[in-house]
Design goal:
- There is one protein chain.
- The chain is mainly alpha-helical and about 270 residues long.
- About 75% of the residues lie in helices and about 0% in strands.
- The protein has ten helices and two strands, in the order H-H-H-H-H-H-H-H-E-E-H-H.
- The chain has helices at about 5-25, 30-45, 45-75, 80-105, 110-130, 145-160, 165-175, 180-205, 220-240, 245-270; strands at about 215, 220.
- Helix 7 (about 165-175) runs antiparallel to helix 8 (about 180-205).
- The longest helix is centred in the first third of the chain and has 29 residues, at about 45-75.
- It starts with a helix and ends with a helix.
């Protein structure tokens, strides 16, 4: 069972994830996933149920970190509702389809989950640390391209619990050639829509045995609530600070941050 110090640590990690959600437009899942892995296991979840709960609780927390970060973008005048919807609607459909097959089956093991998570992090580190050969453009991308990004992000969201931001931001900048601050703003707007739709499914659409007090469906409220509370202060802070940095600096921070998470995961698996 969790102790008082555990709740304090959950609040601290929740604050860090929320800050990164605002600063990088990635939803905070990069921090939430390893944190939830540890604390959900400590609370009593194991095997396939642990993987399903990690995905569900990460996305449930991202509902709040993404919404708060997106609202801060709106207040700063950096909000793109048309592009958000063009990305989110097809992505939600794809994410729900894959989530259904994951949550109603037993084939998605912890080892497979860790492999998917590590593989994505490697690709993102490489992509973000290698300078793009294409310049940013002020021209608007076609709606079909936003739908393509949303569909890819929907698959990533279902399999990783990251909210899709880790792939949306690079795709917006390198494929659609959009400025990184605009890309982060669109990503921040899409992420809570993804997370909300999957979160509703994980609370009401999945029939699982209650293992932990405070568990509703796959969502474990005693674990996620301390993280959620921290988002309301630190997600807006991340957005505000990001507006003071140039695109190159944000890309470098993004790459180094993902690399740190990757090294931790590899150490956990093979160290």
């Amino acid at each position: 069972m969790l102790e008082v110090t555990d709740y304090l640590l959950l609040s601290i990690f929740g604050a860090a994830g929320a800050f990164m959600a605002g600063f990088l437009g990635v939803g905070g899942g990069i921090i939430y996933i390893p944190v939830l892995d540890y604390f959900l296991h400590k609370a009593g979840l194991q095997n396939e149920l642990l993987v399903k709960a990690i995905l569900a609780n990460s996305l449930f927390t991202i509902i709040f970190s993404g919404t708060v970060a997106s609202y801060k973008q709106y207040k700063l005048g950096n909000f793109y509702p048309s592009q958000i919807l063009q990305t989110a609607l097809p992505g939600i459909l794809v994410a729900l389809i894959f989530t259904y097959f994951i949550q109603t089956g037993t084939w998605y093991s912890k080892a497979l989950f860790n492999g998917v998570f590590a593989g994505m992090l490697i690709l993102i580190v490489i992509k973000m640390m290698v300078p793009s050969k294409h310049l940013e453009t002020t021209a608007e991308a076609a709606p079909l391209k936003y739908a393509g990004v949303g569909s890819i992000a929907g698959i990533i969201t279902a399999f990783s619990g990251l909210g899709g931001g880790i792939v949306m931001t690079p795709l917006f900048t390198d494929w659609l050639k959009q400025p990184i601050k605009k890309s982060s703003a669109i990503s921040n707007g899409v992420i809570p829509l993804f997370a909300l739709s999957i979160g509703i499914f994980n609370v009401f659409g999945v029939d699982v045995q209650q293992v932990i007090p405070g568990q509703i469906g796959l969502v474990v409220l005693p674990v996620v609530l301390p993280m959620i509370i921290a988002t309301f202060l630190f997600a807006p802070m991340g957005v505000a600070i990001a507006h003071k940095f140039n695109s190159k600096t944000i890309r470098l921070v993004f790459a180094l941050f993902v690399l740190t998470v990757l090294l931790r995961l590899l150490w956990q698996q093979f160290g």
